[in-house]
Amino acid sequence: MLRAIWLTAQNEARLLVKDPIVLFMLLFAPVVIITVAGYSLGSLYGGATNSIRLPVVNLDKGQVSDGIIRALHKEHNLTLEMLDDPDEARHLVSGRDRTPIAMVIPAGTSADVAAGLQPRLILFVDPVRRVEVNPIELRIDELCRRVTEQAGAAAQSQIESFGAPQALRLPGDLGFLERPAIEGEAISVNAFDQYVPGFGVTFLLIGMMLGIALTLFDERDWGTLKRLQASGAPLSGLLLGKLFARFIVGIVQMVLLLAVGWALFGITLGRHPLALIIPTIGISFAAAALGLVVASIARAHDSVMPLGVTISMAMAAIGGCWWPLDFEPGWMREFARWMPTTWTMQAFNDLMIRNQPPSATLQPLAATLGIGMIFLCAGLIRFVSLDD
User: Fold this and answer.
1) Domain map of the chain by residue range?
2) Which of 100, 127, 233, 382 meets the CB 3.0–4.6 Å disulfide criterion with 189?
3) How many whole angstroms separate alpha carbon 11 and alpha carbon 219?
4) Topology of domain 52-180, CATH
């Protein structure tokens, strides 16, 4: 018995050493995911934070607004951008990275505080980036509270010096109001509006590894592809047929996941639910082509899934499927532009959360299809070369 155990263990060790990809992925896979998560979420645990750009429109030009701007300039991870037009500020929030919120200080704010009224700052927010908006709003709320307290202390000092409290007016309470960056969109959203498409894309990628990469590798080893070729079918045609079948399966998978998300979690499907098929088509095509690439570079059956799952999970994480893209450092966001997941999540967010028209998905679709074509060409060339 002991000898059988020892011989079996030796055989497994030899098999592991013979496939360096499996051996490499045992360490490489967790390191990749740890690296992506660490850089992306480091700021949540007190690490280095990314600078947030805060457009500010000061229509007040008074003592209170000047004090607010001075205090905001002292925030180490906020970069103020002074503008004159509130519409320009709203446009930056909805259309630019690292700008989840903009602030407008209405005209007469300083005078209203002095007159005992309750003026409100206007904050334009992007609901997709609510996780970034909340801590900024906490700081602005604290700033408003300090302004109110300082105004109250100054009024109390005047009261004591004049000795005539009935002749003076107590200052008002400064606060803020949220407004959507795009007319008609919600200010707060259901968390599942982000997680259902995000994790749906993740498992779509992993499913393609099972349905394409793993089965293609087996069919090549078993000689199935050779037998089909012997009947007169070209290899490229066989590969494209398999990709097309899995492409349809991927579309159906995403449609069902979105339907389940709507039924169970109450996700919004936007103003144009049928438009969600556009990014679904793009990511299903790119994922199928990626599965062909993995099948062509894997050297053994046991290396297909570790390699494919690692690539899929890393691509999903970097592309914004698991957390907001703006959490990531600048170099990682630039790298993310070359991943189909990034463009697909942008399209889903625009349709489902920002209530954009279907035309907003055209650029993301073009980018996703372009990346998918690169995968497809590389996979076909590599796979056909293995058959020669």
Assistant:
1) 52-180, 189-387
2) 127
3) 25
4) abc type-2 transporter like fold (3.40.1710)
Q: Which residue has the tokens 């982000």?
A: 194
Burial tier of 118 (Cβ tally within 10 Å: 0-12, 13-18, 19+):
exposed
Q: Mention every residue, 6+ apart, whose C-beta is less than 8 A from residue 371.
A: 286, 338, 339, 340, 343
pLDDT for residue 29: 60
CA 120 – CA 68 distance, rounded (Å): 13
Cα(46)–Cα(167) distance, rounded to whole angstroms?
A: 49
Pairing mode of beta strands 175-180, 101-105: unpaired
Which residues are CB-contacts of 190 (< 8 A; sequence separation ≥ 6)?
265, 266, 267, 268
Residues contacting residue 192 through CB under 8 Å, at least 6 positions apart: 261, 265, 266, 267
Q: 3-state DSSP call for residue 6?
A: helix
More confident residue, 15 or 93: 93
Which residue did the predictor score with more confidence, 259 or 45? 259
Strand order in the sheet with 52-58: 78-83, 52-58, 101-105, 120-125, 175-180
Provide the b/e sequence for 223-245 (b: ≥16 CB within 10 Å). eebeebeeeeeebeebbbebbee
The DSSP secondary-structure symbol of 191 reads: T
